[in-house]
Structure formats: C-alpha cells, structure tokens
Amino acid sequence: MGKGRLEAFSDGVIAIIITIMVLELKVPHGSDWAALEPLWPVFLSYVLSFIYVGIYWNNHHHMIHAVTRTTGGVLWANLHLLFWLSLVPFVTSWIGEHHFTAVPLACYGFVLFMSSTAYLMLARCLETHNEVLKAAIGSDWKGKISMLMYLVGIGASFVYPLAGFAVYVLVAGIWFLPDRRIEARLKS
Prior knowledge:
Number of strands: 0
Radius of gyration: 18 Å
Shape: globular
Helix content: over 70%
Order of helices and strands: HHHHHHHHH
Mean pLDDT: 91
Structural class: mainly alpha
Low-confidence stretches: none
Strand content: under 5%
Number of domains: 1
Number of helices: 9
C-alpha cells in the first residue's frame, strides 16, 4: 500500500488542528496594551500547542518519508495518533481560558502523553516492514524520556500547576529541533 494518501490525509488533519487552535484566539475588546494582558494565558497556551503540533508534523513527515510501504495496521495507528492530536485544540483552549489551573493542565499533559504513545505505536507499526526506519529510531530513548516527563508534568500540575506547564515546555524544547536520526539514515 502506498504512503501518499496517508501523508496527505495526515497533513490535512494537522492543518485543520492548527486552524481550530488559531480560531480560538479572540480579539481584545480594548485598543491599548492593557487589553492584551488578560489574553496572555490563551496566547501562551496557543504558542506551546502550535509548537507541539509542528513537532509532530515535522517528525511524522520524516518518519513517513523513510518508509516504502504501509499496511492497514499503519493506517489505524496513524488515525490513533491523529485522534489524540485532534484533542490538542480543546485542551489548549481549556488551559488558556482557566489560566493554567491544575485539572486543565493535567488533561493537557494526558493528551500530550497519549499523543506520544500513539506516535510510538505508529513508529513500531511502520518499523515492521521498514528496516531503515527501524535502524534510525532504535530504542527511541528520547520518546520514552518524553513520555515519563509527561507523567511527571501531570503529577506536578496537581501540586504546582506552573511546574507542570514548565515540564511540558521542557519536553517541547527537547523535540524542537527535528529528529535527525531518520535524516542521517536516509543519507547513508
């Protein structure tokens, strides 16, 4: 089975996710700098989520580029990832609207955790018939550390919510630069 439709569909869904997130940004009611102040949590949550969706889009692109074929299982694993990513606009809006309180931040972390789990599952499905990808991903320590950090962020959100948010920012920082393992394997 070819990979073109999988990649095109995924790109479309991710574009819609970003569009939904930006539509949640509301214009301030005033025309001075003070009118922007109450919107900073919404904007900050949007920026972080935009970075996360961009990270997934970028790494998904590299991963799909590395494979030669897909299967029905891969299609379902990809839909599983897209499902969790489609919840990012909801939790983004929730944490922004409620100014980084515990439950919305913990749910945000849960969606990030499940997205990373789904991404790992997709990678494992793709590796089954794609040795180049399997060699490039290896043990995926970065992905596993990220999943652990999401769990720490979820717990921290209940103790000190901004600490949970800081953990999510840290994980995004770890992944901000594209994963070069796949690119390096494709060049060799």
